Amino acid sequence: MNQKNQVLKISTAGSVDDGKSTLIGRILYDTHSLTEDKIEAIEKSSRSKGFDYFDFSMATDGLTAEREQGITIDVAHIYFATPKRSYIIADTPGHIEYTRNMVTGASNADVSLILIDARNGVLEQTKRHFFISNLLRITKIIVAVNKMDLVNYESEVYQKIIDDFELLRQKGKNKNQMVRYIPVSALQGENILRKSDKMPWYKGNSLLEYLENTDLEGIEENTPARFQVQTVIRPRTEAFHDYRAYAGKLKSGQLSVGDEVMVLPSKKESRIKEIRFFNQCYQKASSGSSISIRLEDDIQVSRGDLLIKKNENIHESKSVKATLCWMDENALKPSSIYLMQFGVNRIKTKVKKIDYQLDINKPENQKPATELKMNDLGTVELQLAQILHYDRFQENKANGAFILIDLKNNNTAGVGFLE
Question: What pLDDT shows up at residue 121?
C-alpha cells in the first residue's frame, strides 16, 4: 500500500492542563489545516483574553461551555493531512469519569499519543492512559513531554520522565510495543513540525516527522483473512439471472482470486472466482477494502456469514470470556440479557459471571466484583444463543471486539474485547 494513501489513526490522552488541545491546535496550524476565518477567530479570542500569544487550544475546544470551564469532556475526531499521508486524531478526555470515552476513542487507533507535563512528570492519569493503550493492543506509543519551555528545556527533566515511564512500561504485557519519547513545547512550536534548536541534546525526529514516517505495513496484512458478508447481490434481470456475489468489508488480512475459502457457520468450502470493487476487478484485496466476492461453487451464503481462508484457524464457541468496559448508567449484573453486536450479526447474550473488576490505576490488582458500574473495566463470562466465530482481540482486533446493546432502549451498554 502506498503510504500516501494510508490514513494514520491517532488517539490522544493527557492529564488536565497537560496542553493536549494546544498541541493538536499547533499541529493543525503548522500543517495549514485551519481555515482563515478560524485563525482570525482564535487571534481575536486570544487578544480578548489578554494573551500575548496565539491560543492554539481554541482550535479544538469547539463548545463555548467547555471553554468557559476550561475542560474538554467529549471525544472529537479531527482530520488533517501532510504531503505524505492523512491523519485522524481521536481527541479523548483524560478524566477518570470518562474512561468509556477514552476506550471508544482509542479502540481503532494505530498510534497512542500520551502527553506528559514536563513540570509534573508521570501521574496516575498517565498510568491509566498507558493501561488503556495496552488493553487495546496499541503497539505504537508516542510519549510527548510537553511544556519543555517551562523547565528551560533541561535534558535532566526529560530523562527523569523517560526513566519513570520505562518503569511503568515494564509492568505491561505487550511485548511488541514500541515507545518513542519526544520533548516538545506545543505553545512555542518546538519539535512539532521540525527539529528544535532549543534542545540540541535531543537526537530524534520531531513529532510530525515521526508520524509521517510511522510504518503501518504488515500490521493488518499479517492477520488472518476475515470477510463478513453484508449483502448478497442477486440482480433481478434475465441477463444476470445466475449472478451471485457477496458484498462486505474485508475486516483483516488479504484475499486473492484462487484462494480456497470456508464459509462459516455452514463450513461449506469453495474458491474465490472474482474480486470486484464497483465495476473494476482485482486479483487481490487488502484489509479495509469494501469489495464484492464471487465463488466458483453455488453454495448457500447469507448476510452475516464469515468467509475465511480454508487453512486459517478461528475460535468458535457459545461461551466466551471478554474484557468489558461498561458504558451504561445501569450497572452490569450477572444473569442480565443483552444483544451482542458482532459485525453485522446480533446475538442474544447472557452474562454468566463477572470474574473481577480491573483497577485501572493498578492493573496488577484484580478484585472480585458482583457488578460493573459506568466506566468500570472488568472480565466477564458470556453465554451466547448461537456459536460465535471469533479471534482473540490481542491476535486480531478487527474480529475480536463487540458491543453489548440494551434490549429495552437499544442503547450501547458496553464494549468488549474477546479473550
Answer: 93
Q: What is the pLDDT of residues 95-153, one digit of tens each?
A: 666 677 788 778 888 999 999 999 999 988 888 888 888 888 888 999 999 999 999 99
Q: Looking at the structure, do residues 304 and 237 belong to the same domain, yes or no?
A: yes
Quote the radius of gyration of the chain (alpha carbons, Å).
Answer: 24
Based on the fold, state whether residues 86 and 17 are members of the same structural domain: yes
Which of 250, 275, 309 is the last residue before a domain boundary? 309
Q: How many domains does one find in the chain?
A: 3
* CA atoms of 159 and 149, how far apart (whole Å): 15
Q: What are phi and psi of 296, to 5 degrees?
A: -70, -30
Residues 6+ apart with CB under 8 A from 135: 103, 323, 377, 417
Q: Which is it for strands 401-406 and 412-418: parallel, antiparallel or unpaired?
A: antiparallel
> What pLDDT is recorded for position 4?
47
Burial of 117 from C-beta contacts in 10 A (0-12 / 13-18 / 19+): buried
- CA of 343: how far to CAs of 229, 284, 287, 290, in Å? 9, 22, 15, 14
Based on the fold, state whether residues 144 and 280 are members of the same structural domain: no
Question: What backbone phi and psi angles, to 5 degrees, belong to 154?
Answer: -80, 125
Cell 485563525 found at: 39
- Residue 60: what pLDDT? 66
> Residue 64: pLDDT band by 50, 70, 90 thresholds?
very low
Residue-wise pLDDT for 171-205, tens only, equals 766 667 889 999 999 999 999 999 999 999 999 99
Q: Are residues 289 and 323 in the same domain?
A: no
Predicted confidence at residue 363, as pLDDT, reads 64
Helix, strand, coil % in the chain, rounded to nearest 5 = 20, 35, 40
Closest CA to 220 of 247, 249, 248, 257: 249
In-domain check, residue 402: yes
Is the pTM here over 0.85, yes or no?
Answer: no
DSSP-based three-state secondary structure for 351: strand
Name the nearest CA neighbour of 130 among 87, 203, 176, 179.
179
Question: Which residue range is the domain that position 234 belongs to?
Answer: 226-309
